[in-house]
Amino acid sequence: MTRKLIALEPKRFDSYVSAIEAAGGELSELTPDVDALIWTDYSKPALLAKTIEANPQLRWVQLPFAGVDAFADLLHLPVLFTSAKRSYSEPVAEHALMLAMALGRILPQRVKAKSWGQKHADSLFEEDVVIVGGGGIAQELVRLLAPFRCRVKVVRKRASEPFENFGIAEVVPFDQLDEALARAKFVFLACALTDETRFLFSTARFSAMRSDSYLVNVARGEVVDQEALLAALDAEVIAGAATDVTYPEPLPEGHPMWGRDDLIITPHTADTKPIVERLFAQRLSVNVAAWIAGNPLTGVVDPELGY
User: Fold this and answer.
1) CB 104 within 8 A of CB 124
2) What is the pLDDT of residues 178-203, one digit of tens each?
3) CB-based contact 153:185 (threshold 8 Å)
4) Nearest to 303 by CA among 78, 136, 55, 85
């Protein structure tokens, strides 16, 4: 088997080392003859920029997460970037579905209840659903929603491109978002964070939603204007929301988003460290093998789109 030198920086994980070696790669320090780098730290884009600048021989850099907004300023550099997009789709879509069902059954109230209380249930069955974003999470969520016979609209930037919709989702462009929101009972955010989607859900966008609708965010915190969200909940413009992402993270104690009966916050746990390590190792196996064989890589980042 042909072996190729692969650098793994700045942190090494045993599962990643095993995946690289099993795929035929040979782990190496980042020397002048190493042109492939697996980057393992999302919080250090400046260090990655310095590393690439100091190693002009690099041709491929594998980024650690599906979202690459932290590395947006690096994407113009003359290397091929791949992300882990679609690696974590299953657990994140599962988490989104769980949050939606919890909202519909007012679980934030019931888990704290000390009396019988109101009887309330909103079901997903045969409801109108909007998913903002058309990547792996959206596609997996469409699959999970299939048994509920939902009427699903996927709103994505490139509506004309193929979408694995399993025969039940309609795909529409971003300029039809407000029209889609006006019908939707459940709205899921699963898009990349870009200049176009930053604070996409603002006061005006909440006004486009049904007053009995629910918002679930498993994208990035800044896709939603948090002040506008709180105002929409206070004014009952929407019925409830759930988010796995906030800004900042961690969300400080005492923040007005905490402790509400109409808002669920999970601490960015749609995918946890053990889940990420297991699934990213699988992606490394695929891409290292492809790199050695000279085949196309999975998860190539489009620098113009930012994902």
Assistant:
1) yes
2) 999 999 999 999 999 999 999 999 99
3) no
4) 78
Q: Tokens standing for 20?
A: 């690289």
Q: Name the residue among 217, 233, 30 with its Cα closest to residue 141.
A: 217
Which percentage of the chain shows pLDDT scores above 90?
93
Candidate list 249, 255, 277, 304, residue with the active-site label: 249
Active-site choice (95, 156, 220, 283): 220
Query: Are 219 and 133 in contact, with CB atoms under 8 Å apart?
Result: yes
- 249 flagged as catalytic: yes
Residue 141, phi then psi, degrees to nearest 5 = -65, -40
What gap in Å lies between CA 248 and CA 17, rounded to an integer?
Answer: 32
Query: Strand order of the sheet with strand 4-9?
Result: 25-28, 4-9, 36-39, 60-62, 80-82
**Structure tokens that stand for 218 in this block:** 């498993």
Q: Catalytic pick from 255, 268, 277, 278?
A: 268
Q: Return left, alpha or beta for 259; rule: phi > 0 is left, psi -120 to 50 is alpha, else beta.
A: left
Annotated catalytic residue 253: no
Most distant CA pair in the chain: distance in Å? 69
Distance from C-alpha of 39 to C-alpha of 17, rounded to nearest angstrom: 12
Long-range contacts of 41-45 (CB under 8 A, 24+ apart): 41/10, 41/11, 42/70, 43/70, 44/10, 45/70, 45/71, 45/73, 45/74
Over residues 163-177, mean pLDDT: 86
Active site residue 95: no
pLDDT in tens, 103-136: 999 999 999 999 999 899 999 999 999 999 999 9
Whole-angstrom distance, CA of residue 29 vs CA of residue 127 = 54
Confidence class for position 165, pLDDT limits 50, 70, 90: low
Residue 261 backbone zone (phi > 0: left; psi -120 to 50: alpha; other: beta): alpha
pLDDT band for position 168 (cuts 50, 70, 90)? confident
